[in-house]
Amino acid sequence: MGIAATMISDWRRFPISETLVDARVQEESILTTWSDGRLSPFHFLWLRDNCPCDRCVHRLTREQVFEIVDAPADLAAVSAQPDEAGGLRIRWSDGHESRFDAGWLRANAYDNVSRAERRSRPPKRFWRAEQTEALPVFSFAALAADDGALLDWLRALRDVGLTLVKDVPLESEAVTRLARRISFVRETSFGVVFDVASKPNPDSNAYTSINLPPHTDLPTREVQPGLQFLHCLANEASGGDSIFVDGFAIAATLRGRFPEDFEILATTPVAFWNKDTVTDYRHSAPIIATDASGDVTEIRYSNSVRGPFDAPADLMPGLYRAYRRFMQLGREAQFRIVRRLEPGDMWGFDNRRVLHARTEFDPNSGKRHLQGCYVDRDELLSRIRVLERDA
Ligand code: OGA
Ligand code: ZN
Ligand code: ZN
Question: What is the pLDDT of residues 230-267, one digit of tens each?
């Protein structure tokens, strides 16, 4: 089999760092030994399920067509050995043959060491006010023209969660030109692009001139928009400064200082709602979302669109204690990055992690006009992976 066969099940490349030096057929698995001494067991069913041959994987779509239930339950390897390229060649009891590339096999090995290695991606960098100077800053022209600069920006959005882009053209909808460099813009009931300005009949506190306390946008949706962009077209009014709080940093602080309160916010669903004459969006979920390992993956929080708490009566005092503490942390100066947007500046941030806020402004003192749009997290991560294929 040539290179096409070894690449067939994925578009990524799997550089060969180690090769197989031994393969032993055991009762229900093959125990392999790598050139660096690592031992990786691979179960018969796992290997058969991942056979990359063009009978098992569609040659063009690279999606699997084989279904593992079509292999006999007692499927076994008749023989298994490393081949000349350090990959693995297998003959199966039902007559099928498989060949695995060493790079792919190593990247997908599930022995404890390999799995731990995959999980040890550098942890997200949490930030506080003192990191203001280290805020990642990018230029519109570079992001528009250069995929390398784009990749740096997207990684910063993923890992830091807050970025500033300078010299964005002072043109209506310029915000979507950068968003579309990533992928699809997420349209919402507020439009493809939303105009943040003081309006005569506002359908959101954002469209008044009042202080907006720290919040994520659209916690009212089952999936909050992953990225938010806010482009400043005019900021002549007095007030209206931007404030950002790393929601993961305050969640970590809450967890350290008041673990019970963290637990309450991570397990109690809270309702958020956007309701007006023509739409009615509601969603309930805990303010702090965690994954199967207990790591915080998302913050969902906007006091202005929160519904009444609905929790068992005996838990209500604890819920208020926890909620007030979370709110209080968001007011602490040590967590707040405060910056004033200049025309041509654009914030880009992780709306499922970072809380944003603005101070009150005086609409009679001058014009203030921002334009914003959203892009989902899936689009960000997909774009990063594709750019990394060529990097
Ligand atoms: C918003 C918002 C911030 C600002 O529109 O949701 O938070 O600076 N705006 O006006
Ligand atoms: Zn096959
Ligand atoms: Zn907002």
Answer: 999 999 999 999 999 999 999 999 999 999 999 999 99
153 CA to centre of ligand 1 in angstroms: 22
The pair of structure tokens assigned to 196 is 């943040």
Structure-token match 């096999």, residue found: 105
The ligand with the least distance to the CA atom of 212 is: 1
Could you tell me which residues come within 8 angstroms of residue 50 by beta carbon, excluding any fewer than 6 positions away?
Answer: 9, 100, 108
Amino acid at 337: I
Mutation test residue for ligand 1: of 207, 228, 356, the one with most atoms within 8 Å of CB: 356
Cα gap 379→71, rounded to integer Å: 36
Ligand 1 atom having least distance to the Cα of 194: 5
Among the bound ligands, name the one nearest to the CA of residue 243: 1
**pTM for this prediction:** 0.92
Which atom from ligand 1 is nearest to the alpha carbon of 358?
Answer: 8
Phi-psi region of 369 (alpha: psi -120 to 50; beta: other; left: phi over 0): beta
What Å distances lie between residue 292 and 10, 21, 124, CA to CA?
Answer: 26, 35, 17
Interval between CA 92 and ligand 2 midpoint (Å)? 10
How far apart (Å, rounded) are the C-alpha atoms in residues 226 and 18?
37
Burial level of 349, CB count in 10 A (0-12/13-18/19+)? buried
Residue ranges in 222-365 assigned as alpha helix (H): 247-257, 259-267, 316-331
**How is residue 140 written in tokens?**
């519109």
Pocket, ligand 1, Cβ cutoff 6 A:
196, 206, 212, 217, 242, 356, 358, 370, 372
Measured in Å, residue 208 CA sits from the centre of ligand 1 at: 10
Pairing mode, strands 137-139 and 162-166: parallel
Q: How far is the CA of 287 from the centre of ligand 1 (A)?
A: 20
Tens digit of pLDDT for each residue in 10-33?
888 899 999 999 999 999 999 999
- CB count, 10 Å around CB of 197? 19
The span from the CA of 241 to the CA of 246, in Å, is 17
Please give the number of the atom of ligand 1 that sits closest to the Cα of 217.
Answer: 6
Ligand sitting nearest the alpha carbon of 190: 1
Distance from chain centroid for Cα 235:
31
